């Protein structure tokens, strides 16, 4: 929990091996605008999960940081990240991109930072609707590689987590014809005053 009154309240919070994960719902009313924009975006098959899975690339499109900072979605993200900020450290975005996955794609488990970095990943689910039977969950694992949490896509859902938590996005099931868009903002931890 945070004492910062400007921070968004999480709808769900948990710790995985002492590392935070928080879910935020209901803060992105214009999610359809993002989905329609992504339907026209140029995705390239360039993203990899880990070096040893490099031959299995998946689809992504990068967002320039200058453009990200001007987007309303970033202001919502920034307010949610305030709940992770302390008097000794804050966070700054260093990368933003959207992944798209469809039935049949192969996605691999990975971490987004080294354990001692404590960087954050803000992951937005950009869909106008999502059915439980469509799959597409993001699975989070503990240190023993047991599933510690499964977060399902929902329109405009945001999950923010310590990037050292191992995770994997699951592609949609065969019955799903909608793309699974996830917009990731990677944030590095900074000492206070930077």
From TrEMBL:
SMART domains listed in its UniProt record: P4Hc
Which segments cross the bilayer? none
Q: Which domain of life is it from?
A: Bacteria
Cofactor names from the entry are: L-ascorbate
What region holds the Prolyl 4-hydroxylase alpha subunit domain? 19-188
Keyword terms: Dioxygenase, Oxidoreductase
Quote the protein name from its UniProt record: 2OG-Fe(II) oxygenase
> What is the protein's species of origin?
Lysobacter arenosi
What lineage does the source organism belong to?
Bacteria, Pseudomonadati, Pseudomonadota, Gammaproteobacteria, Lysobacterales
């Amino acid at each position: 929990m945070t004492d910062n009154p400007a921070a968004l309240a999480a709808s769900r919070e948990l710790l995985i091996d002492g590392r935070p994960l928080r879910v935020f719902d209901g803060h992105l009313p214009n999610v359809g605008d993002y989905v329609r924009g992504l339907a026209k975006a140029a995705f390239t098959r360039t993203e990899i999960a880990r070096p040893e899975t490099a031959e299995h690339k998946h689809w992504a499109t990068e967002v320039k940081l200058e453009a990200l900072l001007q987007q309303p979605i970033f202001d919502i993200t920034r307010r949610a990240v305030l709940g992770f900020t302390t008097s000794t450290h804050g966070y700054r975005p260093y990368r933003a991109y959207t992944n798209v996955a469809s039935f049949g794609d192969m996605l691999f488990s990975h971490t987004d930072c080294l354990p001692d970095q404590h960087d954050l990943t803000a992951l937005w689910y950009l869909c106008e609707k999502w059915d439980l039977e469509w799959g597409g969950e993001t699975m989070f694992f503990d240190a023993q590689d047991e599933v510690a949490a499964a977060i399902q896509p929902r329109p405009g859902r945001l999950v923010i987590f310590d990037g050292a938590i191992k995770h994997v996005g699951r592609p949609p099931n065969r019955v799903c014809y909608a793309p699974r868009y996830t917009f990731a903002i990677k944030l590095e931890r900074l000492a206070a005053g930077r």
